[in-house]
Amino acid sequence: MNPSDTRTADTAAPARPARFGTVFAIVVAGVAMSNLDLFIVNVALPQIGGHFSGAPLASLSWILNAYAVIFAALLVPAGGLADRTGPKRAYLLGVAVFTLASVGCALAPGVWWLVAARVVQAAGAAALIPSSLGLLLAAAPPERRMAAVRGWTAVSGLAAALGPVIGGLLTEFDWRWVFLINVPIGAAALIAGARLLPGAPARRDAQRPDLLGAAVLTLAIAVLALGIVRGPDWGWGSAKILGSLAAAVALLAWFVLRSARHPAPVLPLGLLRAPAFSPASLANIMFAVAFAAMLLSCVLWCQDVWEWSALRTGLAITPGPLMVPALAIGGAPIARRIGAGPLAIAGCVTFAVGVGWWMWRMPDGYAAGMLPGMLLTGVGVGLTLPTLIGAAVSALPPQSFSTGSAVVTMARQVGTVVGVAALTAVLGGGGAARSEAGFDAGWLLTVLATAAAALVCLFIPRARGE
Question: What is the pTM of this model?
Fold first, then answer.
């Protein structure tokens, strides 16, 4: 590309506000696909285990955690790739990989084959998510960027609302359809994106991403998850568990040290100096622990304790996520008036009250037990998640949109891994072996993680103009 081409790309992408609607529609198709897949797979997990000779939860959890680990580790290198080559190329590559890997998931002959296909799928998601937000922020004028972030998050929330129902419906036919549903969505996003997405500016001076750093982070998170998941089986004081946790700490220390020295690190430590970025990202981790544990616990309660079908489970979960899109958009004026920190704290408190309601009333049935708690947790997610994302990325310079948004999403995925692993360790056993006391312990863990997130939100500074 010659200099004149670079100037054309630099001026074309953000200078055409009329294209924003088109960019938004194409971009959120990929975002919706990846988010839909996450919630669909949660609902289908018990059926997948039954199909593969009753695989234990400790093995099944890697269908979720392998995806989250790879997704988290590759997000920032993929964001750097988007900055280096242009978000359009990165987005289309991510959609293509995710779609093809979805076919591989559907054809998997066993649990660990499925885990391997989920790893490839996560690599595609890691490429499309940060580049999608990069495209969106580049197409939006500065005064609309916060609204763009909230709209992007609202679509994720809508996919989360539809995911359990769609997953339950597809699982009634065959669990493999929960992956094949991605094929037409991905194909449509590829065709439309190749023709209509603008060539947002690329940073030709960007360094090559630190792939070794990504590998170290992958191994660190995987070892940490392994130590948590296997704790009840191996013994929390055993050499295996203590060794796993010590190895995770050592690998994370190496990762931070490498990030401080590499010219294109997985975790750009300089971003942590941006106002609100560090506390918002840390709060994202803690809230993701709570959210992941909450979602999986609901699926397992419905299908293992109440012995509901996947479709009925999906319908039961849907009211909570349905609260998210409207609150994600409607919360923007409140955040400007009172600040991101207080609004996120209010969301955390609401979420924790919803989970606490389950500890008190879940055995009383759906209407008196699960539904009120599900509505409260939905309100909590709608107030907290978009607020934390917006607080973290809104102060970043335009050239760091893709990388910065990738760090925020990476933080959330790390929390997801820890949340799923922790709940798996607390519940243990098969469906018949899980007791109400075990679920209460899992929900207590969820409340404590939410409280930690609220505490961190106290340190989010008020942005200029709020």
Answer: 0.81
Nearest to 268 by CA among 276, 256, 280, 279: 256
> What DSSP letter does each residue of 50-118 carry, written as one string?
HHTTS--HHHHHHHHHHHHHHHHHHHHHHHHHHHHH-HHHHHHHHHHHHHHHHHHHHT-SSHHHHHHHH
At 163 the pLDDT is: 80
Cβ atoms < 10 Å from Cβ of 374: 24
Q: Which two tokens stand for residue 417?
A: 């891994």
Q: Are the CB atoms for 158 and 31 separated by under 8 Å?
A: no
Rounded to whole angstroms, the Cα distance separating 333 from 461 reads 17
d(CA 440, CA 448): 12
Instruction: Tell which residue, 426, 424, 419, 425, has the closest CA to residue 450.
Output: 419
Q: Which two tokens stand for residue 305?
A: 């304790």
Q: Give the C-alpha separation, 77 to 394, whole Å.
A: 21
Greatest C-alpha distance within the chain: 68
Are the beta carbons of 167 and 65 closer than 8 angstroms?
no
CA atoms within 13 A on the CB side of 105: 30
| pLDDT for res 283 | 95
User: By CB neighbour count within 10 A (0-12 exposed, 13-18 middle, 19+ buried), where does 465 fall?
Assistant: exposed
Low-confidence spans in the chain with pLDDT less than 70: 1-18, 143, 157, 160, 200-207, 395, 398-403, 429-434, 463-466
Instruction: Determine the Cα–Cα distance for residues 19 and 173; give it in Å rounded to an integer.
Output: 40
User: What CA–CA distances, in Å, run from 436 to 5, 99, 441, 443?
Assistant: 63, 39, 9, 11
What is the pLDDT, as a whole number, of residue 18?
A: 40
Query: Cα–Cα distance between 84 and 154 in angstroms, integer?
Result: 28
Query: Cα-Cα-Cα-Cα dihedral of 406, 412, 413, 418, to 10°?
Result: 150
Token code pair at residue 408:
């925020």
Phi, psi (5° rounding) for residue 173? -90, -55
- The CA distance from 27 to 164, in Å, is 22
Q: How far is CA 343 from CA 148, 328, 333, 455, in A?
A: 19, 12, 11, 13
